[in-house]
Amino acid sequence: MESMQQAEAKDYYDAIVDLNSSIKKDLKAGKEINKKKIRTIMRPILEHFMVRSTRKGVEKEFQGITDKDNNLIKFPEAKTDLLKYQFIDEDNVLKNIANNTTLPILEMLNKDPEKIIDFRQLNRHPLDMLNEFPKKDQNYFNSTLSNIFLLSLYLGLPIYRSTLYKHEFFNKDVEDIDKILKSKKNKDLIFTVKQQMVVHNMMRTIFLKRTESSIYSLKKSLENYEERIKNFLEILNNEHLIIRVSNIETYLDLIEREENLTNKEKNELEELKEVADENIYNLEALKNDIEKDKKIISIMKQALDKLIEKDDKLECFKKFLDDQYSNNKKVLIFSYFSDTINYLSKKLPTICTYLNNKNSAFVSSENKNKAQEYAKRFSPISKEYYDQIDEDNTEIQFLFSTDVISEGQNLQDASVILNYDLH
User: Which strands, in side-by-side order, build the sheet including 331-334?
Assistant: First the structure.
């Protein structure tokens, strides 16, 4: 077995040497590098060693890893656990808010979210379809947080669906819109309309994932949407233009530098503009639907603020960290969202007084240039960095990070890995 593995390794080594020589010859001769040849040779080599370097692969083939004295070292047993928590479940959180709005909140909360989600294509604002949505089953589990997510399903997202407010599409059945599109030759228009009819599916997934991550992360999403609504309406009301949401940031930047634009930028600016013509768009309906979304966002934010006052998930997490700190365990915490990591960085030190910049670090897209430094301080043994640890460059016990630190890192010093997003 050992001689076969040595022969295999030699074959791969020779193949890489030959490939390297071939690339150098091509470059010297001024030829284009043969990428297909590189992929053909390197893919099986990488797959061979990458698969074997996984824990399962090593355990299956070698039962473990041998040290320099040929002693077999087995992997420690991995244990999976679940931290249980429950948000406050007082009915009056949303009921009290419902009394101060013109929206039919209680009726909205009585609908089955799964049935609402089944409407894959929307041609109207969800509030205008309220009577079409079936009621919840009597056994349906209600909670404040689940009801907040249910409210997000009623967001019509009109600023992302502005083309559907053109008179030729507005209030038409899905089947009628399909017929209209079949008569069109403009591929960009066809793509835009189809995309806008399903954009709510993507946004709902984002809202759900953020709800599972942290209530603060969901609130930040709503605030970002509010800001986009504000910019969209300002341009619509003041300049009588409809600018696609994806282009608003570029548009505002170009407008700010309008006097110093290049000819190319001037052309780009003009291409972004679309006149808000009442003969083409149902502007009244567009503005009304935007107001509906603003009211829903306001209610959701009020409810989220109540939950943030007593964040049960954070309280549960605090107790977990207390135990790990007492037992001197190294803990690696992941979240997909920078907003959640930022929230934890602000809240945790106020309730976990032992957390400080010497024993903990928070990494997100905002400070990803620090990722390597924090990874070394968190896992100095596996990264052979221990001789660099001192009073000014302390070892980290708690590392909180987005996926900027998850790929290609050797963090074997960790005792516990926790995914904060799993719900």
Answer: 360-363, 398-401, 331-334, 416-419
